[in-house]
Every structure is written in structure tokens, then in C-alpha cells.
Amino acid sequence: MRLVIVGDTLLDRDVDGSVRRIAPDAPAPVLDEESVRERPGGAGLAALLARRQGYEVSLVTAIAADEPGARLTRLLTEAGVEVYPLPLPGATAEKVRLRAAGQVLLRLDRGGPPVPPGDAPIAVLDVLRDATAILVSDYGRGVARHPALRAALEEAKAPVVWDPHPNGPPPVANVRLVTPNESEALRLSGDAGNGSKLSAARRSGHQLRQRWRAGAVVVTCGARGAVLCHSGPTPLVVPAPRVSAGDTCGAGDSFAAAAAIALANGALVSEAVQQAVDAASAYVSGDRTAEDLTRRRAGEDGTGGGETAATDVAATAGGAAEVVARVRAAGGTIVATGGCFDLLHTGHLATLRAARSLGDCLIVCLNSDDSVRRLKGPDRPLNTESDRARLLAALDCVDAVVVFGEPTPESVLAWLRPDIWVKGGDYADGGPEMPEAELMKRWGGQTVIVPYLDGRSTTKTIQAAKTIQAAKTIQAAKTMHAAQAGGQ
Question: Which of 14, 163, 191, 253 is catalytic?
Fold first, then answer.
């Protein structure tokens, strides 16, 4: 089963701390930061929740080539979500919540006004066609307005669940289920909210169902459950289980994702709504832990190397983001290649120069020290990632270097979205398709091979050095033995 989620992805950041004083220069509390947690928000959170339940999840979203976009892509790919990125001019949207004692003191939004994403690659339209179910998670930033995506959604055979936003477009016709919350339903329908909350939800739900020509509209009502408005005159009211108070941020994403999964499994709409109410209630009550969905920033929880890897891309993303943005704005071709580059030799130089000749810039994706150790063994690398990155960046054929900590460059490639990915000559004589080839197709990229220089290899160089050193050691021992024998 493949659940495809379409929508706007944000980077959510929770900054937790303590307030013990008021600022001397303004009547405002001073938050002493103690920890920072990051997670994908919006459509990204819905994808994370669905993936956490073991389903195959593909996320069609727009991600900018900036530092928050790099972190966002890494969080998603690390969780097993297949990212199908659309180019996003401008900045990645961020929501930063400053909290103390479990309460939000202030929310800071970054990223500026919404900007329409770029063209949808053919692979994106293919994945929508092959979906078992589709969830549109609209956060009003432009993905749900994309003309090609809307056309593909209208033609989709799979059941579509649409989670709307007041600043977004209406759902396409014949959506199986639309999931506004109470305030969204009233605002979108123009209902004044007179009478009981139940009657207002019923009126607005029926009006929206008819206007949007949807199969059904379910109005989510928080702790009171949900009101399902379908073709009959009488709504289905699904009460929520009694739960203790908890953080409701993300409950709507949990509801919509659970409904889409239920429909994918063949449930009736009424059954899907019941399962979604249970899932959202469990989410709010804390049946998931924050650590399941978020990542602490490096060094805050004592986990060491794994957490350091989480910031590898972010720490080196600035220069690459500037290069990519400049070349993309000029309509140029972005080329990327990757590897350990432990002992830089003429074979590397030939590959890098050949790669640079294929486009207007070359980004090198460099394995971090931890990544090299996992791939090559505990004795590697011989040079630190900092030294390796500085040597590569000094080459005239290299425009930027990005360090990544995973075994493969999947997350950094999904963020950079190069037009061409270059591999060395291992595959020059045919054989199986390169592992990155399928990934590159998601945004219409191309994987190519350039030849190696024969006889140039880091491993062979190290082995030769060890052989020479061993020979010298043996010769020294023989000389010493001969000298001792002559003196006797």
C-alpha cells in the first residue's frame, strides 16, 4: 500500500526553557533556553505519522534550497519517507514555538509570504497515479494550488482525503472526504455559528460538501469528536474518547492521515472517521512521545555521534544553498557528485573536472567522518571531514561542499535536487542501475557516469604505503640484526 501525501511542509521548532525574570528593557519574560526540538510540520508531520505506522509513504512537497530545507529533508528521509520535492523559490517556512512549563509564550513564523512552487516532474504525476490513497495536507502556501497537481488529483482513481486551509484553494471535485476543523468550516462556509455547536457544524459541513461536490465533509470538533456530513440529511456524530489534556498541535494531521490510511485499507467513510477520531485522541493524550516525532539539536541529549550527524548538512548548507539559488535563477545546470575523498588523488581530480564540465556548478556531497567509518572501517578516514572539505573547496572545479552523515546521500540530494548526479567509472561497463538513479527521477534529474583514471585508488594508495612501510620495517630489523651479529 502506498499513501501519497501532497502539501506544504514546514519546519517546526520547539524551544523549551525556564522563565525566572522579566527583561529590564521591556515588559516581556526572559526565556532561558534549555532544549530545542525540531520536526517536520504540516504535510511533513502527516507523512511522519503515517510512516510511523509502517506504511509506505511518498510526500509531494515544495522545499527550498536553504539551511532549514536541508534539515527538513534529512528528518523526512531518515524516517523512511520518500520525498518528491518541487522547487521552491524563497525560503522554507518555519514555525518556532517558545515554551516554558509546557505553555507556549510566543510563536515566531519565518519564511515570508507564500511563493508558488516550480514545475512538477513526471515522477510526481506518476506516483499520484499509482497511489493506494492520497492525502492533500494544505497549509495555504501554494502546493495545493499547483495546476498540474490539481489536474492529477482530479484524475486520481485512489480515494482522496483533503485537509483544507482557509488561505488555500477549494478541494478538487469528487474528493472522498474533506476534513476542516470547526473554525475552518465556519470561515470557509460563511456560517455565523448561530445556535448550538452541533447545528453550526452540521450546517457548515453540508454547505461545504455541496459547494465542493465532495463525497463527504467531516467537521472535527476537538475533544467533542467529529461531525460527518454525507449525502443523507442526518449527520453522523463520532464522540472522542475521554483523554487527559495534551498538546493538540498536530492533531489535525493525525486525524487526516488516519482517515486516508483507513480508506486505503477499504474502510467505509464512516469507519474511517471513527478510526481517525481514535487516532487523533491518542495523539493528543500522548500515546506517542515527542522523541518519536522530533529530533534534539546536537549535543543536548548525550547521544554523541548520531546527533552530530544530524547537523552535518545544516552546518555546510549555506554556501551550497547560495550557489544552487544563483545557478537555478540564471537557468543553469546544477551538477553534484559524492564520496569520501579521503586521500585526494589525480583520479578524484579527473572525476571532479569531468563532472564540472557537465554544467554550471559542481556541488560535492562529502561523507562525514562517522559515515566513512561505517563504510570503510574503524581506521578510516585518514583525514577529518573538515580537512577533506577544505581541500575539495580549494579546487577550481568545485563550487561548494556539503557534508552528510548518512550511509547514502539521499537526503542531501533530495534537498539540492541537482540536474545531474555524477558517479565514477564503477558502472561504466553496465550492470545494475545505480542506487541514486531512481531518486533522481523524482525531480527529473539524470544520473551519468564518468570514467576513472586507471590505477588511482585511495585504498590501493593506503595498501601500497603499508607495504612500503612494512618493507622498511623488515629491512631495518635485518640491518639491526646484522649489526648485532657482527659485534659479537
Answer: 253
